[in-house]
# Entry
Amino acid sequence: MKGYKIECMINQALQDLIGNWFPNPEVKNISEVVAVSETEDATEENVENPEPVNPSLLEFTEEGSQFLNITVQPEQFYALMTQLKNNTETHFDYLFCLSGIDWGEALGVVYHLESTTHRHIVVVKVKTEDRENPTLDSVCDIWKTAEFHEREVYDFFGIKFNNHPDLRRLFLTDEWEGFPLRKDYVDDINMVIK
Amino acid sequence: METTTVNSNFKSEEYFINMGPQHPATHGVLRLLLTIDGEIIKKVQPDLGYIHRSIEKMCERDSYQQIVHLTDRMDYLSSHINNEAVCLTVENALELDIPERVKVIRTIIGELTRIASHCLWWGVMGMDVGALTTYFYGFRDREMINDIFEETCGARLTMNYNIPGGLMFDIHPNFVKRTKEFVAHFKTKIPEYDRLLTGNVIFQKRMKGVGILTKEDAISFGASGPVGRASGYSCDVRKHHPYSALDKVTFNEALKTEGDSLARYEVRIMEMWESLSIIEQLIDNIPEGDYKVATNAVIKLPKGEYYQKVEAARGELGVYVISTGTKNPYRLKFRSPGFSNLSLLNHISVGGKIGDLVATMATLDLVIPDIDR
# Structure
């Protein structure tokens, strides 16, 4: 196994690094809202504050998963993904799984990212509450594999992706009504419910 | 003279033809819409879904034992490895302690599956570029592996030998003997493959410098398996995230840097040697012990998310399970290697000839049920 065990960043270090890109404007000592912080300014945590305020706009959790999970709002989503790929410390260049998920009240997409140089893995989750016309940003221009995967998600969940070069149904015909992998999809003929 | 064009995407000298869904070189029901200028390919658009069964939706209503059987029908040439992926996901989620015997047997059969898959690929690869004999040679050797599987698992293709917790039953008494016979036999046959096809001048000219994929593009397109490794991208899951007994064996990751069709071909030939080596290291030392651990009749995974990746014959297969604590998964996603590998077909075949597209596709080794899950 020589050469295959690369020292990768531990999840806490990753969390601190990525969290600092999107500081929470509600935290004290931050005077102005910065959408994408290119610099590595550390957010000063207010240790005297009795209520724990998330210093970042991103939510991190490792609960119930073997990877570090990042939940991001659709507004910051594209900027986060660009940073994750381009920053040399993270360098997540391999998008190995892109899954659409129907959470019931919200529709979302889960991105599994791995770095081929550092060999660390994160999971990015983004959700939208709008079930009628769900729209998220495309990451096609960051990872080319996303083009087909996003078409698959559009086909089965009806999530539209901004700036996708060719957003059409992939597996189903253009006339198909509804989005089969949504939980509220009904098909009395083809679906066998036990 | 004014002309009216129906579709503004086309220039007057370009036209489009269908390749498939019944084309013999697409190895299944894959339809490619080719935009061509003379014989030069301008664009390749896959049209998918001819055999889509929505396995992911079916998984949401099935129990975990039943899901294992569905995975046979994805990439049917590496069915054992697909089964293993689901079983590992369930076992890791339940934190079961799997006996060493199970791990070793799973790895041996997994590598036999890989050889069988590569034998079939090698046979049809030769046929796609016009060499009929390879087909018979490849199938002759694959038949020996299928006979071993038949004796031990009761099935030759969709084996269903893995269950969550171990194996369905113990190996057949003849298993070790016949596997050793096969390894000895196949060691004399790979050089024969090389003499017949690899060194052939016509074959070399069809393969060299065709369909080049750079390392950056391979990573960006999510290429995995032999396709990624032929571009110098170290992506062997068996090395980076070892599972079952793969951390106990030594083998080399088959890597080439050229990224052309010939490199993808050679990587698979190298992989067959490595698989033989893995089998040889394990076959004499199969530990004694149980062939399964007891699980509940109704398996309920704890609430949470689980991801397991394995190296199937075509590349990285991922199983992503979201469980809410019930007996069915809330959502189950298969990250199939063929789907990502297909997405780069347009990129590497534009500018080439139609004949080269057939050869390039053969080196991608697409299995359509794996793409149309």
